Structures are given as structure tokens and as C-alpha cells.
Amino acid sequence: MSRSPIQTEESIRISEVTKRTGITSRTLRYWEEIGLLESIEGPVGTERRYHPDILDLISTVRTLQSSLGFSLTEIKALVDTDRTFARVKSLLRAEPTEQERKEALLHASEVNRALISRLVDRNQAINRLLEERLKKQARLEELIKETS
């Protein structure tokens, strides 16, 4: 289970997240279990709480699933890349040494390249499927004209 240190200023309860997004608490807990979401750490036995930004992330996850057909593994790769960028950005604000800066940027670059590679592979597979479907559609239209 991934939990961030408690932040009391801005947090929303899991019940509020479910109400506002239509996602079940079971799904939210599963997404948290696989590392897709992070809850805010609170006292043991209390209802899970999330940063309000979780609502945007859930919306993004749903769009990637429904509109683009991404799996949770693919979505997690995207989220992890964004988290890496956020950590690097935070590190750069803290005035790191040149070596720390270079290592952080190189790591972020490697993570992003891996994601780009996955997206390119996925795009190529989609393009191959689209080409096959376009050829079949063209053949169907030829057959329809022949029967008219």
C-alpha cells in the first residue's frame, strides 16, 4: 500500500472520492495496491484520505482506459514517469550539486525514453491494425459495388 506522509490542509476522504468520481472504494484500494494511486498517511484505523489532485488523476486514468484502451500497467508507467519528473523537479529546486543534477536528469531521461519506446510500439501496433481494417473495408466496399 502506498501512502504519503499526512497532510491535513488539503485532503479528501475515500468516500468523497467515490462519490465524486463514481469509482468504487474497492477499485481505489486496488489502484493504490498496485501503485497507481497514493493515499495520504493518517492515523491507523481511519478512512483513507487523498490529495485533491487524485480527482484529476482518476479522470486521466478513466480516459486512458476508455478512449485509448490502455491497461493499468501502461497507465502506471505513465504515472510513474510523471512522478519521476516531479521528484527531479523538486530536487532541482533544492540546488543540488552538479553531479546530483546530472544524475537526476539522466535518470528522468532514461525513464522517459522507456515510456516513449512503449508508446511507439503501441502506436505501431495500432497503425498495423488500422491498415488491416482499412484494407478489409475497401474490399467490402468493392464487393458491395459488385453486387449492386
Could you characterize what this model shows?
Helix content is 69%, strand content 5%. It is mainly alpha-helical and 148 residues long. The chain folds into two domains: 1-69, Multidrug-efflux Transporter Regulator, Chain: A, Domain 2 (Orthogonal Bundle); 70-148, no CATH class. The strands form two sheets. Strands 1-3 form a two-stranded parallel ribbon. α4 packs antiparallel against α5 (98-147). The protein starts with a strand and ends with a helix. The model has no long low-confidence stretch (mean pLDDT 91).
Write the layout of secondary structure elements.
Layout lengths: L2 E2 L7 E2 H8 L3 H9 L5 E2 L8 E2 L3 H13 L5 H22 L4 H50 L1
Parallel strand pairs: 1-3
Antiparallel strand pairs: 2-4
Helix pairs in contact: 4-5
Structure, briefly:
With about 150 residues, the protein is mainly alpha-helical. The chain has 2 domains: about 1-70, Multidrug-efflux Transporter Regulator, Chain: A, Domain 2 (Orthogonal Bundle), CATH 1.10.1660; about 70-148, no CATH class.
Largest beta sheet: strand ordering: 1-3
The low-pLDDT segments are none
> Helix proportion of residues, in percent?
55-70%
Q: Any idea what the radius of gyration is?
A: 22 Å
What is the typical, i.e. mean, pLDDT? 91
Query: Span between N and C termini?
Result: 62 Å
Helix-strand category: mainly alpha
User: What does the main sheet amount to?
Assistant: 2 strands, parallel
- The total count of helices amounts to 5
Q: How would the global form be characterised?
A: flat
**Relative strand content:** 5-15%
Order of helices and strands: EEHHEEHHH
Number of folding domains?
Answer: 2
The beta-strand count equals 4
